[in-house]
């Protein structure tokens, strides 16, 4: 998710710290206030209101710096989008969605156009995890617009479209990612899984349509059968009994015998 390493950005990493050193506070809201920013998509309600959601910790996230290194980096440069983004990833790893969101919004606010794709990608992933797929697609489209040459944005956007059930767009985004990185095996396997899911859903829809046709035919047959039974009842009800033959006819028949 970092997309750019600290060395690519010319940021000097500190030496590893003693494990016994007390962990410094890492609070982006205290580092720099952020009342309002058009760069943070304030028209999206999910980004303009506090998050009252539980956030599962993402223990598999690997950070290139320790918490103290990130905290010191923010102390030296309060407007560093890079350190605010790392702080956001730290809180995602811990499982604090609100603090992760606060840091990501500051990262997006301070990032120059050349690097805005990184916090946009981070925020897009967060919204997707929060089951706000439509809003996530908006941010990820913006990330792709800022960095169309980086495959990560195309890949995450493809995953969002797959969740939304828009498989054609999803496959197109996977193809874009593979066009930029043909050897990315995760994209290949995910695309294959989405294609399988698309085929299964198409088969399910066909089967459902077939069953609906059968149900319609059965209802029609049942209706016709009920009308036929009623007609038979009416016929039997109004059918006149045959008259008994007269006694003279019976005597004549006996004489002939």
TrEMBL record:
TPR repeat intervals: 151-184
InterPro entries, A to Z: TPR-like_helical_dom_sf, TPR_2, TPR_rpt, TTC17
SMART domains according to UniProt: TPR
Gene3D superfamilies listed in its UniProt record: Tetratricopeptide repeat domain (1.25.40.10)
Keywords tagged on the record: Repeat, TPR repeat
SUPFAM superfamilies to which the protein is assigned, alphabetical: TPR-like
Superkingdom: Eukaryota
Protein name: Tetratricopeptide repeat domain 17
Source species of the chain: Ranatra chinensis
Phylogenetic placement of the source organism: Eukaryota, Metazoa, Ecdysozoa, Arthropoda, Hexapoda
């Amino acid at each position: 998710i970092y997309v750019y390493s600290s060395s690519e950005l010319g940021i000097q990493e500190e030496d590893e710290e003693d494990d016994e050193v007390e962990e410094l506070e890492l609070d982006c809201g205290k580092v720099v206030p952020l009342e309002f920013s058009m760069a943070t998509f304030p028209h999206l309600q999910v980004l303009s209101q506090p998050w009252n959601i539980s956030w599962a910790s993402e223990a598999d996230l690997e950070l290139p710096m320790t918490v103290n290194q990130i905290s010191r980096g923010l102390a030296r440069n309060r407007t560093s989008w890079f350190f605010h983004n790392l702080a956001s990833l730290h809180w995602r790893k811990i499982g604090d969605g609100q603090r992760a969101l606060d840091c990501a919004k500051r990262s997006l606010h301070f990032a120059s156009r050349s690097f805005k794709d990184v916090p946009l990608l981070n925020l897009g992933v967060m919204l997707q995890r929060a089951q706000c797929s439509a809003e996530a697609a908006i941010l990820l489209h913006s990330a792709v617009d800022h960095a169309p040459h980086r495959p990560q944005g195309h890949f995450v956007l493809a995953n969002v479209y797959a969740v939304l059930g828009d498989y054609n767009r999803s496959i197109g985004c996977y193809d874009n990612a593979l066009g930029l990185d043909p050897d990315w095996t995760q994209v290949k396997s995910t695309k294959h899984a989405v294609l399988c899911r698309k085929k299964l859903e198409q088969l399910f829809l066909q089967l459902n349509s077939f069953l609906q046709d059968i149900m319609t035919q059965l209802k029609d047959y049942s209706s016709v059968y009920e009308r036929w039974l009623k007609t038979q009842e009416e016929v039997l009800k109004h059918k006149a009994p045959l008259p008994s033959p007269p006694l003279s006819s019976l005597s004549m028949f006996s004489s002939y015998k």
